């Protein structure tokens, strides 16, 4: 069966939640040997490369924004795609199908059922060149190769947990400057860079938080950050290394020369009659009456 998160876990103490996530994060990490093969591949169109992976992730971020899906959906889709690419030798021509299937699995795992688009509509909107049958076959392969471990431990979960703990424990008014939406946006930018596929979720999450505290000069939160670092068993050297990579990534991402997700093409293809059909379809599905459970 597909892995799921234990309901009500958010009500548990910080230390208990943290231990549960740390115990699980290695289980959902992409294989390092597979990531190194991708990293060393020549960009000749014959093998999967880091550049192709990053292009696909940006497309998935565009879809996430287009459908107004949650950051959790995007973060999970990235994790699924990286784990699959690190395990299987995916040919570039199959990447679009693999990427969309990982995205669809994440959507179905995270979003409410009424907000999940039909597979055919998703293919049309994303302009992919394969059929629903192709997608169903690929989805089955992905699930089997990932051993049905779909509901992964992600950097987003740890980032939210760290942020919640630090802001709850701090008595300083400056904690309001530690904005979770801004932190999540920074994480999305990091997800679009292959290098961060090799970072443990806990380390990446804490590196983003540590950089923000440094940049905002929130010195009164330093002790809380250090406490979280110790509880997460993250070394100063490790944290410094990834914090510097995050800083470099965010600086490059803010540059006008950096390629960013663009969902303009998604809007273009569903203009006119197609848009009205899809809107009517989703409106009808969203307003179907729910079936009461049997007593």
Automatic annotation (TrEMBL):
SMART domains: CYCLIN (SM00385). The keyword Protease does not apply. Keywords: Cyclin. Residues 58-144 form the Cyclin-like domain. Belongs to the cyclin family. This is Cyclin-G1-like. It comes from Acipenser oxyrinchus oxyrinchus. The lineage of its organism: Eukaryota, Metazoa, Chordata, Craniata, Vertebrata.
């Amino acid at each position: 069966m597909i892995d799921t998160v234990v309901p009500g876990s958010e009500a548990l103490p910080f230390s208990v939640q943290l231990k549960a996530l740390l115990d699980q994060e290695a289980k959902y990490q992409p294989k390092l040997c597979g990531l190194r093969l991708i990293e060393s591949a020549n960009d000749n169109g014959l093998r999967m490369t880091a550049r192709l992976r990053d292009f696909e992730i940006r497309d998935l971020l565009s879809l996430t924004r287009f459908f107004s899906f949650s950051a959790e959906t995007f973060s999970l889709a990235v994790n699924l795609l990286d784990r699959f690419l690190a395990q299987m030798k995916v040919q570039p021509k199959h990447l679009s199908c693999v990427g969309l299937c990982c995205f669809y699995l994440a959507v179905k795992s995270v979003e409410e059922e009424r907000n999940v688009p039909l597979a055919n509509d998703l293919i049309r909107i994303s302009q992919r060149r394969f059929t629903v049958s192709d997608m169903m076959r690929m989805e089955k392969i992905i699930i089997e190769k990932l051993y049905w471990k779909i509901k992964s431990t992600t950097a987003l979960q740890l980032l939210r947990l760290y942020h919640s703990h630090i802001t709850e424990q701090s008595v300083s008014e400056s904690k309001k400057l530690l904005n979770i939406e801004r932190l999540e946006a920074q994480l999305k930018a990091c997800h679009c860079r292959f290098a961060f596929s090799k970072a443990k979720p806990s380390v990446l999450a804490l590196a983003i938080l540590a950089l923000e505290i440094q940049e905002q000069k929130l010195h009164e939160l330093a002790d809380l950050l250090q406490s979280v670092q110790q509880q997460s068993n993250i070394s100063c050297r490790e944290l410094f290394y990834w914090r510097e990579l995050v800083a470099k990534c965010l600086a490059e991402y803010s540059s006008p020369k950096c390629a960013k997700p663009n969902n303009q093409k998604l809007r273009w293809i569903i203009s006119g009659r197609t848009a009205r059909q899809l809107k009517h379809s989703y409106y009808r599905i969203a307003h179907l009456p729910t079936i009461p459970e049997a007593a």
